[in-house]
Amino acid sequence: RNNTLLNLPEWYVEGLVSYLSTDWDTEVNNEVKDAVMSGRWEKFGQLTGKDARYGGHSIWKYVVETYGASVISNILYMTRVSRNADNGFLFVLGVSLKNLAAEWLHYYDNMYYKQDSKLNLPEGKPLNRVRKRPQPYCAIEHPKLSPDGKNLVYVWNDMGKIRVKLHDLQKRKKSTIYKQGYRAYTTQDHSYPIVAWHPSNKLVAIITEHKGKIKLILYNLETKKRDTRELFNFEKILSVDYSDDGREFVFSAVQLGQSDIFIYNIISNVYEKLTDDMFTDVDARFMDRSRKVIFSSDRNNDTIKQFDMRLLPRDLNHDIFIYDRDGKEQTYRRVTNTPYADELAPMEYDGNSLSYLSNEEGVFNRYMAKLDSSIAYIDTSIHYTYFTRSRQVSQYPRNILEYDVDTVHGKIAEVIFAKGNYRLTIKDREAEKAEVLSEVGYSGFRSKAAEPPKKKKKRTSILVEEQKPLVVEEQPQEPAKDTRPDDPGEINIYDYRFDVGPGQVKDSDPSQTDDGKQLLSDEPRTRRDRKREQVMARIDSLHAALEAVQNVPLEMQLPPQRNYDVAFKSEYVVTQLDNAFVNSTYQTF
Q1: At 569, phi and psi to the nearest 5?
Q2: How many angstroms separate the CA atoms of 497 and 491, rounded?
Q3: Strand order in the sheet with 400-406
Q4: How far is CA 292 from CA 210, 327, 348, 349, 368, in A?
């Protein structure tokens, strides 16, 4: 049927696609929680963009959890038949779309209210301007504190209009050191640009992508000049960090379709590959005076392997690993091992501990891990076993999207998305360590994943009693009574017998008549008998053919080969003229 008159809302299509392709994870949970608690989704029919995708995802999830997964196909069918989304829900669920939206908001409000009322957002005024009107499309990303703690650099992305901002924390002044792009209603790539501070506090490294090529831009704060060069042999760079001497980069980069860790020499433009496997390695940072590299990976072992692993276990979570550049052991040091949580963005917290983000309680908060060791055994030398002591140091109702720690001056910069706006704040490390956290528990969806799988109940065995053979005592038989009727015309219904028994009937030849004469025709007398004779004849001929070829070896003969010609024709043509942006971003992969 013609679907021209079928006009579906954006949340219906985008939400269904998101629900079928993406699991309910921490990112979706954070977006839904912030929108529900801030009241942005009260006007349900006006959702667009990111709100339409996450709002539709949450609606379809609510429908499945309330009415079952089988109703989705029925809703889609009734929507297509009636050409109306409201009628599709009404005919299948018996609830109008308006009432369903009210029940949906009430469901998620009850889920998040108890936890959200006990937690608070970061104290202090954000460094960026936070408007009363929500601006979810204006993002703040990749904050980096300078080594001397006086400056902060971050990326401001307003729907493709990108600016790299330099914020002087002492003078409270902002300036733009790099800009690219323009605002457009297209899918945005928020992975570029990424920034890093040189240890001398005089250079800012900016890595971005332009026309499919990766560019390294070095901005000098004293001369305010930029030096640009191209980075080869990388498809994408995910994170960057300077070494303590400023001569090397550590990259989390994509090469040949897989994400690995690289050490890049800035002067000679050569790199060393630290990991080479099918696992995803991200968020690499230097630590311990650049002698070690800490990163997050979804690998299920701590052994350095240099071969492709074709089969990967499913549902892998990211953990923290440390690579010792001077060590000779072919293993990584595992810092965390959580089967139901992800740990991301590891870095040095102070001289003796590390920090990372974890969604162990359903929200990405900051944790502190202290590395320690003990003597395992002694033979010709002392052998140590290493372990980690972790604890939570932040407790926000929203995810910490990105953060950076100044290990020398004890400052922490973090980005949080709350009430429809991105918030960039600076806090003191010592105040965070002294903060006392409350017990809130999990945030809805994570509690189900953290529960251990239920054991299947074994079927109870049925006790079967041993049956003893039944012994029947023989009783003396009484003499048979004469049950014949007194009157010859009466019938005895208790002892009714035929005059001719079944053993007294003789088999008759169908080819003979009752008088014993031979019939003129040998064919059966009915149509059923004739058909049966034909079937039996075919079966006999088939058996004879099988017996004839039983001892003859059979050879497979290929059918005659011919060219397979494919013909195409235009079946669907659309012509559209509007003011939409049609030039898509160029990607080499």
Answers
A1: -150, 155
A2: 10
A3: 400-406, 411-418, 421-428
A4: 32, 9, 11, 15, 18
Q: What is the DSSP letter of 489?
A: T
Nearest to 295 by CA among 330, 263, 261: 261
Q: What is the pLDDT of residue 179?
A: 93
- How many other C-beta atoms lie within 10 A of the C-beta of residue 382? 9
Backbone angles phi, psi at 102, to 5 degrees: -65, -45
CB atoms within 10 A of CB 518: 9
Residue given tokens 């009937």 in the structure block: 505
Pairing of strands 161-168, 194-197: unpaired
Per-residue model confidence as pLDDT tens digits over 182-233: 888 887 889 999 999 999 999 999 999 988 899 999 999 999 999 999 999 9
pLDDT at 311 > cutoff 70? no
Residue 315 DSSP SS3: coil
Task: Give buried/exposed letters for 522-561 (b at 16+ CB in 10 A, else e).
Answer: eeeeeeeeeeeeeeeeeeeeeeeeeeeeeeeeeeeeeeee
Per the rule left: phi > 0, alpha: psi between -120 and 50, beta: everything else, 416 is beta
Cα dihedral sign for 188, 191, 192, 195? positive
Q: Name, in order, each residue with C-beta under 8 angstroms of 122's C-beta and a sequence gap of 6 or more.
A: 396, 414, 416, 423, 425, 427
For residues 173-205, one letter each, b for 16 or more C-beta atoms within 10 angstroms of the residue's C-beta and e for the rest, the string is eeeebbebbeeeeeebeeebbbbbbbbeeebbb
Exposure string for 225-237, b = 16+ CB within 10 A, e = fewer: eeeeeebeebbbb
Alpha carbon distance 158, 140 (integer Å): 9
Separation CA 18–CA 285 (nearest Å): 32
Which segment of 235-249, 252-266, 408-422, 423-437 scores lowest on mean pLDDT?
A: 423-437
Q: How many CB atoms lie within 10 A of CB 57?
A: 24
- A 10 A CB-CB count for 209 gives 20
- 102: tokens are 């009210």
pLDDT exceeds 80 at position 306? no
Helices (H) and strands (E) in the chain, counts: 9, 23
Maximum distance among all alpha carbons in the chain? 139
User: Half-sphere exposure of residue 421, counting CA atoms within 13 Å on the CB side?
Assistant: 14
Rg (CA), the chain: 39
pLDDT at 122: 87
pLDDT band at 28 (very low <50, low <70, confident <90, very high): very high
Instruction: Compute the distance between CA of residue 540 and CA of residue 410 in angstroms, rounded to an integer.
Output: 96
CA 221 → CA 177, 193, 205, 267, distances in Å?
Answer: 9, 18, 11, 20
Alpha helices in 168-242 (DSSP H): none
List the structure tokens of 531. Answer: 């058909």
pLDDT band per the 50, 70, 90 thresholds, residue 347:
very high
- pTM of the model as a whole: 0.73
Distance CA 255, CA 480 (A): 103
Position 361 pLDDT exceeds 80: yes
Q: Containing H/E element for 535?
A: helix 527-548
Q: What is the mean pLDDT of residues 437-456?
A: 58
**Residues belonging to the chain:** 589
- Token pair 């990424």: residue: 194
Cα 477 to Cα 241, 481, 494, 506, distances in angstroms: 108, 12, 19, 35
